[in-house]
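Bumping my old thread because nobody answered last time. Still need a sequence for this structure:
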């Protein structure tokens, strides 16, 4: 299973990226060729790519709130195995070709122990601060090795003027500054 960033959104739910919980029967070159062909014919890729859930029953979780300094995932301390309840919920408009709506919710069979983690706190109707930060692990799209993962926590700082808001989402679109293209933070669903 890849190293993916996630956030605990309830005692029993984890928000992560859809590409972290789904697999394709195609390698990257084949997927890109299929996506290019589908775009030319204006067909939604998610309906034509054979996507299936990665076969895992547990996730290994590391809890941290440290966003300062260089933090290697192996330095996060002990991990805890959390058992998954069924298949993750993937955003119905997830597009594996463009990474649009790259969101999934993992439901756990039991609550995350309080000593391990607690859900994020999101106040309603809160104004964005002037300076914002986003942090996570992922892959380097410029690396010659497509599976080259960041093993260090990556942090991006950006200004709220570079953010568009709607009633349900905050979209950070800062050229050259992103953990993943089209990162989204969900405010409410």
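Sorry it took so long. Here it is:
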């Amino acid at each position: 299973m890849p190293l993916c960033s996630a956030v605990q959104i309830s005692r029993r739910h984890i928000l992560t990226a859809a590409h972290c919980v789904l697999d394709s029967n195609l390698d990257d070159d084949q997927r890109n060729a299929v996506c290019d062909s589908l775009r030319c014919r204006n067909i939604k890729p998610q309906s034509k790519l054979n996507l299936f859930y990665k076969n895992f029953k547990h996730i290994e979780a590391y809890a941290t709130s440290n966003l300062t300094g260089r933090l290697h995932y192996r330095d996060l301390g002990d991990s805890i195995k959390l058992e998954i309840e069924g298949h993750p919920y993937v955003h119905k408009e997830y597009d594996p070709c463009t990474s649009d709506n790259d969101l999934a919710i993992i439901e756990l069979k039991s609550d995350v122990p309080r000593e391990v983690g607690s859900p994020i706190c999101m106040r309603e109707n809160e104004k964005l601060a002037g300076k914002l930060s986003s942090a996570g692990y992922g892959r380097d799209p410029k690396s010659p090795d497509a599976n080259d993962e960041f093993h260090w926590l990556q942090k991006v700082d950006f200004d709220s003027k570079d953010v568009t808001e709607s009633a349900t989402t905050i979209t950070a679109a800062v050229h050259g500054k992103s953990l993943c293209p089209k990162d989204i933070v969900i405010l409410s669903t």
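The two ends are 27 Å apart (CA to CA). Let me know if any region looks off to you.
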